[in-house]
């Protein structure tokens, strides 16, 4: 891409961003030229989201300079972003969502044009997507919404997209769709566009990026062409040592009696970690929700629940956004500590402090609002909430979405320790690597269980085979 | 997904049709030009007020001052607009701008709309009493003529309702600005990220609400020929009920102008229907509530079923 290198689309020089006393970014210099595909990596709270929001104009830098080659604003320069949390209007159709970010759609026939543009863009990025331009977004699955959002980012929208920032674009997508996206990103960059690709899946970074930038605590600690990095070097640069070998994970321990058996065939024994795997959106989340609802009652919550739920969709099912970290943790244990129906604040604080230390929530004070935490740490709070309750069964709906490797390792260790004490985990994960951490794996396909794998049978190949079998046979 | 949950408009249409059929069955003479006019006579101001409320609900707020506002407009229409049309018109335009400013303030200061509008309802009520301390005034002739016009085929109330439904459908569902306004209700952040000023959009939504509120007040005076400071107080709750009955949701920007108009018609008809039942007026408000709950239950059941499949 040497012919483009002279023309950076955006140049950041010594950019700092402070939120009160927190230095989210502390002097970052970066330039992104046409044809670049930058892999941006870093653990949670390293400043990735802040950097993205500075580039796309969502935040103003406290210090430093951000310059674009065309116009003064990110929008004029053709900078588009796909955010980690889904940001479409769920009440509007796909075509109408395009209208929100596309001012040039005018006149009586704007709908027809919007439909055509969004369809063209979807067809280009995700061939054979099967999504209709007139469906309302809230009837789509999370993966489909993510696809729509990506398509909108790449759509022409009056001016063409020149720099597209993708923040964890594949975390909700299954492998096939993700590879379509990666292929499109490569085509886009080859045609002179630029992409900033943020992902926790290092394999993707190595596949798509030509340059990797590592952020750590608000600084760029390493920036090299992708060829100069190895997987291990990258992980080391981020500051976490990932145990890359899942074989060590499984520690054999005695399993108790069967505690879960659903009509669908899902089963679990006390002390077992049961994985639900397969392609995203094939009925795993619904199976977990059904299990949870059948085991809990809306009428009598009782003092000791049977099942607790760890949400993957933090905003919808997880955090109580107006409450503090402490209140978000202790909500599940209020009944146990209550005296005469009053909250025992002392034991509440004890539980929160205990879990803050055990699960490593990065905050000075558990009284801070939950939204002051980064996404990964919010997820830790949700784990703390579930594990603090005495419930013997824990249901987890893809809880590791967008969580960094370090946090994941912490949580894996905690899950194993809790399982050894006799707790049962049902764990839906979109990452096959995580399924390999389980004692038993149920692979879902088209809303039904297509395979049950145990012990040494749990391998990536077997899981993929069970996920795809039908599609290759037909 | 079944048809009822996909086409949210079906349930309001069915409710109205069932209620209409029941009314005709009880009182076949209502099935005439004159009968329909009597049945739906008061529907036009209620439909306009419901549209006004819908504008607010569309951006995830709620307006508890609408009844008082419509009353104030009615008082101005029956006095100033009659005696000094220029001054009256200026007052009404000021009220619309005031509504827009209110929306901007609610957004800029992040105030809860429910509290602000509750407070404003006393302001509007006070102003109305100030203008018209005792019931009275008169309708401007042109307004009276407009509201009592007898179009061919269908009575004024029905024709006007259809016109209101079509116009607001184009404004809110089909037009670009309407789409963006609904987007504010769906996901404010993503609208803001796309470079829109949410402040202006909210002011726009409230301004539209003010505009339709003014129309509601004027239509009411055209029908009743006089005004009173408390003439439309029940419109606040009627309008909210109408929006919900018409398939709208309190949050999330899911509204339907056609549904809202149908909801308003249903509520108007419910009152007439209960009179035909010879139900004592003491029980009528309760019975109206029961009809409302019945329709909402039906909607909930259908949307649950739609969600399961």
Quick recap:
The complex is a heterodimer of chains A (474) and B (309). Chain A has 474 residues and is an alpha/beta fold.
Can you describe this structure?
The complex is a heterodimer of chains A (474) and B (309). By secondary structure, chain A is of the alpha/beta class. Chain A has two domains: 2-238, P-loop containing nucleotide triphosphate hydrolases (Rossmann fold), CATH 3.40.50; 246-473, P-loop containing nucleotide triphosphate hydrolases (Rossmann fold, 3-Layer(aba) Sandwich), CATH 3.40.50.300. Helices cover 35% and strands 22% of the residues of chain A. Chain A has helices at residues 48-55, 94-100, 110-125, 142-154, 175-190, 202-208, 231-238, 284-295, 314-318, 325-330, 334-337, 345-359, 375-388, 405-420, 432-435, 460-473, and strands at 8-19, 22-33, 37-41, 63-68, 79-82, 163-167, 194-198, 211-216, 219-225, 258-261, 267-269, 273-278, 307-310, 393-397, 424-428, 440-445, 448-454. In chain A, strands 5-6-7-3-8-9 form a six-stranded mixed β-sheet, sandwiched between helices. Chain A has a six-stranded mixed β-sheet with strand order 13-14-15-12-16-17, sandwiched between helices. In chain A, strands 2-1-4 form a three-stranded antiparallel β-sheet, with helices on one face. In chain A, α2 (94-100) crosses α3, α3 packs across α4 (142-154) and α12 (345-359) crosses α13. The relative contact order of chain A is 0.11. Chain B has 309 residues and is mainly α. Chain B has a single domain, classed as ABC transporter involved in vitamin B12 uptake, BtuC, CATH 1.10.3470. Chain B is built from 16 helices and no strands. The radius of gyration of chain B is 19 Å and the shape is globular. Chain B starts with a helix and ends with a helix. Classes of the chains: A alpha/beta (474), B mainly alpha (309). At the A-B interface, α2 of A face α11 and α12 of B.
